[in-house]
Amino acid sequence: MKILVTGGAGFIGSHTCVVLLESGHEVTVIDNLCNSTAVALERVQELAGKPLRFIEGDVRDRNALDRAFAGGIDAVIHFAALKAVGESCGQPLRYFDNNIGGTISLMQAMEAHSANCLVFSSSATVYGQPDNVPVREDAPLRVTNPYGRTKLVMEQLIRDWCIARSEVSAVLLRYFNPVGAHPSGRIGEDPHGEPNNLMPYIAQVAAGRREYLRVFGNDYPTPDGTGVRDYLHVMDLAEAHAMALQYAAARSGCEVFNLGTGHGYSVLEMVAAFERASGRKVPFEVRSRRLGDIAELTADPSRARDLLGWVARNNLDAMCGDAWRWQKGISP
Fold it and tell me: Which of these, 24, 25, 32, 237, could form a disulfide with 58 (CB 3.0-4.6 Å)?
């Protein structure tokens, strides 16, 4: 198929582009490079041994989207969004404008260009503080921060679009915590400025780029008091998108899937695992809890297993080992 990947130069998008190209798809990427670099796309083509087409532009810019759709697009994978929980609490208008506005603009362009298949990058943040873990897809949706609220509204927009247009098909993928890097060490997560996610922050401390890790809260009702999350290797996540694409292309309507391993690790367990992988100490300091954070969030990924045929294959050692290989390659 001819696939448009929005935000394809980013962490998850770039790894997914490798999988798509290796699977024989033709790939066009649109990305404004606000938290990524075009170098990642050069390396994607190097790893896959195949070219892709790149449009530098914002998904809120209809002219840029029309250029991206030129020549025909069969399906879209939509990654393009701002994604930092803490930042969204201080800049809610920016998040609503970028994330929700961008999704509306994209779906309008899809209608204009008769592209009826969409895979959407959603988030487990839509579950808020769950009643039970692991979390199933039918759990109540109750977000605790503006970022999560944008993802929930984006999901609702897509569902309503599918109801209004019987020919449209969409898959909503609720990620838990993507980490790791391509095993080659050529592409990985390298956020602009201070990392908002745990793994790249730990990696930068291990590499000496930062003095210590800030651990936000050690008084949660978890085994060691720190937050517990379901961490998922980015290559497993990329494979899930290729499978979701095939699933969506074969039917109409809207489906939702959790993507995670079903097992949670605390912040301190992640620190210990990265120390094993890197052979470096990761000093940390405990701070007060962050606004919008919750104690524990892990996935029940059985629906993705049963309907998509997808299971996470990489363990925590692989996640940390690949992340460290990438970090060593980009650290001075």
Answer: 32
Superfamily of domain covering 198-228+263-298+316-330: UDP-galactose 4-epimerase, domain 1 (3.90.25.10)
pLDDT of residue 129: 87
The answer to whether 182 and 326 have CB atoms below 8 angstroms apart is: yes
Burial classification of residue 59, based on how many CB atoms lie within 10 Å of its CB (0-12 exposed, 13-18 middle, 19 or more buried): buried
Distance from C-alpha of 5 to C-alpha of 63, rounded to nearest angstrom: 16
Whole-structure pTM value = 0.96
Buried b (16+ CB within 10 A) or exposed e, 253-287: ebbbbbbbbbbbbbbbbbbebbeebbebebebeee
Q: What integer best gives the mean pLDDT of the chain?
A: 96
Sequence-separated (6 or more) residues with CB below 8 Å from residue 261: 176, 230, 231, 232, 299, 301, 312
Catalytic residue among 147, 175, 201, 220: 147
Confirm whether 147 is a catalytic residue.
Answer: yes
Domain 2-180+231-260+301-308 adopts which CATH fold? Answer: Rossmann fold (3.40.50)
* pLDDT at residue 191, as a whole number: 85
- Domain boundary assignment for the chain: 2-180+231-260+301-308, 198-228+263-298+316-330
